[in-house]
Amino acid sequence: VPPAECLFVGDHPENDILGAARAGLKTAWLRQGRQWPSSEGKPDFVLEGLTDLLGLLGRSSGADQSFERI
Question: How far apart are alpha carbons 57 and 18 in whole angstroms?
Answer without folding.
Answer: 21
